[in-house]
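Good morning N.,

You mentioned wanting to compare the apo and holo forms, so I went ahead and generated the holo version with zinc ion. This is what I fed in:
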Amino acid sequence: MSIRSEMPWPCMNCGTVNHAQVWHAVNVAQDPRIARKVQDGSLFRAVCRSCGFQAGLDYPIHYHDPARRSYCLYHQLGQALAPEDQPDLQDIAGKVGPEYRLRRVYDLDSLMELSRVWRDGLDDAAILALRLLLEAQVESHRGARPLALRFDHLEVDVDALEYVLVMEESAPAESMTVPAVFYRNVFPRLEAHRERLFPTGRWVEWTRETARQALMAG
Ligand SMILES: [Zn+2]
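and this is what came out, ligand included:
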């Protein structure tokens, strides 16, 4: 079930109080249009009706993709949660069943990236580990660690994964093409520890730390 409410947001530029629709829960099967807005990030952008100022919205959200048997809970670490957002993790796990991928993320970029990974039918454990490997590769080529590197979409025709790369705050986003063989090569490294680090039916933190453990273990 999808759940939404209205949230007032005062414009930082002109002070007008706008109202944004806030989706506390998005069910991909019931609301594919809203799911696409999670995937492209537009759900979390708002425009002031008076002055056109653009603001980012950031709030806890449950993202449920029943067809992919996948469920993600996003909230910022340490964020105070309203009762309707209070995660009853065991309750959710019990309701959806033991074969589900259950993921927790703590930043919106991770939620959006994960939703695109599921949309394109990819393995989120492999994508998570691959990000660390790609970041190291970018660093060795350019002499600096990227500020952000996120999976964007699968290019089936050319068997490649498209990424969005941001090197620094002031630099424009670049697209980066990664041959899908890079993705497939991650699988053998994950196999031995997949059950422990990415068990189905249990909550897994889809974070850099989990990726690091997966690669160290492999
Ligand atoms: Zn305004």
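The first strand starts at residue 3 and ends at 10.

Happy to go through it together on a call whenever suits you.

Best,
F.
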